[in-house]
UniProtKB/TrEMBL annotation, chain A:
InterPro entries according to UniProt: ABC_transp_permease (IPR001851)
Keyword Cell membrane: yes
Gene Ontology MF, one: transmembrane transporter activity
Alphabetically ordered keywords of this record: Cell membrane, Membrane, Transmembrane, Transmembrane helix
Compartments where located: Cell membrane
Organism name: Oxobacter pfennigii
Name by which UniProt lists this protein: Beta-methylgalactoside transporter inner membrane component
GO cellular component: plasma membrane
TrEMBL record, chain B:
Record keywords, A-Z: Cell membrane, Membrane, Transmembrane, Transmembrane helix
Membrane topology: Multi-pass membrane protein
PANTHER family reported in the protein's UniProt record: GUANOSINE ABC TRANSPORTER PERMEASE PROTEIN NUPQ (PTHR43370:SF1), SUGAR ABC TRANSPORTER INTEGRAL MEMBRANE PROTEIN-RELATED (PTHR43370)
GO CC term (a single one): plasma membrane
TM regions (residue ranges): 6-26, 64-85, 92-114, 146-165, 195-217, 246-266, 272-291
GO molecular function: transmembrane transporter activity
Record's protein name: L-arabinose transporter permease protein
A Pfam family matched in the record: BPD_transp_2
Location, primary (coarse class): membrane
């Protein structure tokens, strides 16, 4: 009984865990290489832990960083399961933020219990439409989703800036941001002096829903079948093109809702974007660390949220640039990308013994 | 400014904007012709832009910086090659990893070298050199503002075209990209060809990065590549995986850039944020076949396993 569940579980988290540990080791080595003494490098890691999990309030703040990553990580996972690499979650997140803000001020006057969900739905719809374009182009014309995703990310970025800066209906006169959403659309902090809102629960709920969709419904079965082997799925009577589009819509809706939650919890408006938000791009890493499983994604997002939050403390109290954390994230992905390397060494070890 | 001077200005700024793209797009062309997708071009450009500035900072020579950029580009592309050819990693994920790694590594090293986040101090850059052309009216207005990078890029386009389409090596590259199994059968070393092409793409994209930093602004700051690696990727697709085609696409994208600057200096009230979207939308349309069918090499993105039958 225990073996039935625990063994596959350990097997599935084995590689990500090793990747994470190796990456932290590599980060440490790198600090030494650059000339930091061991004591300072150790202090940096201690500050990283303290700065991300040091107190209840800090943990809350870590979760603030994790919340959007849960959404984008889920978005990436939903697409991965169908064999799609939705690197466009970034653009879908941006569009979702924008449509949520739109609903947030245009529907002013609604009571909160209608307005809050209306914004969430608007965000999800915005992201879904943006992603559907990619899915349809892939399904009908065979265009590679990665290239179109990247292109649409830029279009989303510039479109969001254009609308929020130049169109009087959306923008605040002579300001570099949109109007604020109405108070009835906001999610409020759970604790005093905290920015953590019910957004974290919405994110976790979405993880559960995605789990149910993927593993307990026909739609999820079909999406996974297409992801495993499109030719076999087609032969088995599953429409590959239909599922590609549906998976992208599902993925885009998750990313877009992430944008909405971020707007409703933290920003309350869309600011001029001087660069990408990076939530969509970090979502790639989160999905990979989480092995494209909704619950794994939640842990991956907490890890990346903790790294992001703790990096400030690391810079502040150990004097190590916070960019070292980005380095660790990069190395984690390199290792996960090169999963084969682990398998290779494992096989070798097996051959020897 | 009279009409001809304006035209000269447009041409020279189109050339300048297109140049970094041309290097990276040529790199992409080599890599993908041999069957390895390389969306790490952006990261390689970042690395090249940074390394050239760092080397120029320590040695005072921006030309050594260019060599450094080429070397660092080859190194990081070598990592991509190693992961995707030797270990058959997902090439797209490996590319994403390279982009992430380069961004963080350079951001970190700026702190280490210059003791400040975000940007380097100014360094020696590569100036435009005077040529006999400078005194000719009109032509002179074009050549005065452009650096050797521009000329070298054009030469590289010719060389790349020649290598890919007129030499036995190029034939092998294309064979490996279209049908690795068949190439293997006739005795072509698929892995070796792919390694060479991916590393070559790193060399080119690295120089492309240098053309931005020591070639334009004489310094490095975070985010200065601003997605040019991805636009180069777009140019490569739009140019149908051919050096000359890629160059033409880079000119088109460079031209939208130039027009935008041109309109701004003239105080024309057209919105530039719509103009900057053009390359991306054009690429989507090109891919969708509205501008003409573009077909990738058949084995692009597919790892090759010699032992698999």
């Amino acid at each position: 009984m225990a073996d039935k569940y625990i063994k596959p579980f350990l097997k599935s988290i084995y590689l990500p865990v090793i990747s994470i540990l190796v990456s932290f080791g590599a980060g440490f080595l790198f600090m030494l290489l650059i000339g930091y003494p061991v004591s300072q490098a150790a202090k940096a890691y201690m500050a990283l832990v303290k700065g991300s999990f040091g107190s209840l309030k800090i943990i809350g703040e870590t979760l603030v960083y994790s919340t959007p990553l849960i959404f984008t990580g889920l978005a990436l996972s939903a697409a991965f399961r169908c064999g799609l690499f939705n690197i466009g979650a970034e653009g879908q997140f941006i569009i979702g933020s924008f449509t949520a803000v739109w609903a947030g001020f245009a529907l002013e006057g609604l009571p909160w219990f209608l307005h809050v969900p209306a914004c969430l739905i608007a965000g999800a719809a915005g992201g879904a439409i943006w992603a559907a374009v990619i899915g349809i182009l892939k399904a009908k014309l065979g265009c590679h989703e990665v290239i179109n995703s990247i292109m649409l990310n830029y279009v989303a970025w510039y479109l969001s800036n254009f609308l929020s800066l130049k169109i009087p209906y959306f923008n605040m006169p002579s300001k570099a941001f949109t109007k604020d959403i109405a108070d009835t659309a906001k999610l409020y902090p759970l604790f005093q002096n905290s920015r953590l809102t019910a957004g974290i629960f919405i994110a976790i709920l979405c993880a559960v829903i995605l789990y149910i969709i993927l593993w307990k419904t026909v739609l999820g079965y079909e999406i996974r079948a297409v992801g495993n082997n499109p030719a076999a799925a087609e032969y088995g009577g599953i429409s590959v093109s239909r599922n590609l589009v549906l998976a992208m819509i599902l993925s885009g809706a998750l990313a877009g809702m992430g944008g909405a939650v971020q707007v409703q919890s933290v920003n309350f408006r869309v600011n001029q974007l001087l660069s990408f938000t990076n939530y969509g791009l970090d979502g790639v890493a989160v999905a990979l660390v989480g092995k494209q499983h909704p619950f794994g994604v939640v842990f991956g997002a907490i890890l990346f949220g903790a790294l992001a939050k703790g990096s400030f403390q690391m810079q502040f109290s150990a004097g190590v640039p916070k960019e070292v954390v980005g380095l660790i994230q990069g190395i984690i992905i390199v290792f996960i990308a090169a999963e084969q390397i682990f398998l290779f060494f494992n096989k070798r070890k097996g051959a020897v013994s | 400014m009279d009409f001809l001077t304006n035209i000269a200005f447009l041409i020279s700024s189109t050339l300048r904007s297109a140049t970094p793209l041309i290097y990276a797009a040529l790199g992409g062309t080599f890599s993908e012709s041999s069957g390895v997708t390389n969306i790490g071009l952006e990261g390689i450009m970042i690395t090249g832009a940074f390394t050239s500035v760092a080397v120029s900072h320590y040695t005072g020579s921006p030309w050594l910086g260019v060599l450094g950029a080429a070397a660092s580009g080859m190194l990081i592309a070598g990592l991509h090659a190693f992961l995707s050819i030797r270990y058959k990693a997902d090439q797209v994920i490996s590319g994403v990893a390279i982009n992430l790694l380069s961004g963080s590594l350079t951001a970190f090293l700026i702190n280490v070298i210059w003791g400040q986040p975000g940007q380097s101090n100014p360094v020696n850059g590569i100036a435009s050199f005077p040529t006999f052309l400078d005194n000719i009216p009109f032509i002179g207005n074009i050549t005065k503002g452009i650096t050797p990078f521009v000329y070298i890029a054009l030469i590289f386009v010719y060389i790349s075209h020649f290598v890919l389409f007129k030499t036995p090596f190029g034939l092998r590259v294309r064979a490996v990209g279209e049908h690795p199994r068949a190439a293997d059968t006739v005795g072509i070393n698929v892995y070796k060809i792919r390694y060479i092409c991916v590393i070559l793409s790193g060399l080119l994209a690295g120089i492309g990065g240098a053309s931005l930093s020591v070639g334009m602004v004489n310094g490095y700051r975070d985010g200065m590549t601003a997605g040019r690696g991805f636009i180069a990727l777009a140019a490569m697709i739009f140019g149908k995986w051919k050096p000359v085609g890629a160059m033409m696409a880079c000119f088109l994208f460079g031209f939208t850039d130039a027009v935008q600057v041109f309109l701004q200096t003239w105080g024309v009230k057209i919105d530039t944020s719509l103009l900057v979207m053009t390359p991306y939308i054009v690429t989507i349309l090109a891919l969708a076949g509205f501008i003409g069918k573009s077909t990738a090499p058949a084995a692009d993105g597919v790892p090759y396993d010699k032992d698999e039958k």
